[in-house]
Description:
Number of helices: 6
Helix content: over 70%
Low-confidence stretches: none
Mean pLDDT: 77
Number of strands: 0
Largest sheet: none
Radius of gyration: 37 Å
Structural class: mainly alpha
Order of helices and strands: HHHHHH
Distance between the termini: 73 Å
Amino acid sequence: MLFWVAVMGFFLLMQLPAHLLAGAEVHVLVMFTNQLPLSLLATYSLLYGLLPLLLVRRRVALFLSGLGVWLFVCWLLTALLRVFGFLAMSGHAGAPKQALQWTDYLTLPYTFFTVLVTAGVACAIKVSNEWYKQRQISQQLLQRKLQTELQLLKAQLQPTFLFDTLRMLHTLTSQKSASSPAAVLHLSALLRYLLYDSQQAMVPLASEVEMIQHYVALEQLRLGNQWRYR
């Protein structure tokens, strides 16, 4: 609705200079009975009939052929509306009847031009919207791909570390080592971080440092005396 209100306002503004400077008549009735219906028909047939052939189906040859037919039909309808308006005005009560002269077609290019401009602007808006939507979809797919790759990388790294740590806990508990409770606490804190905090977009630096400390403590327990020589 806002688009068509803007179109009618544009048609009206195009007539105001001649009206203000030369006193020409403002053809408001012609706008609503001639230009607006033809613009509606031409615009929506282009947007929902021909344009999907180019944007969705990628049929360029069929689109160009249909565009040629669309231009011819628009010109024909514009000419018929011009003739119909002339005949209606000639048969109006009190108006002298005149024969249709070739000079009566001089206003045809103007009406045809306004129809093409309206349909072209609407087409440009739709193409821009489709391009923006496709760009948003591409960005979302790229983000999902990166997240999936990150999750796969985590899935590849976590099991190895988890199995090594569990094997180390089994060794400590079998030996009844005093370090077993500390190892369990370090592992639980590290798993809590990996399962919950790492899923967030941003985490505090203190949490990262604490995670590294738990990891280093587990490695120290796993490697034992070998840690000193690394």
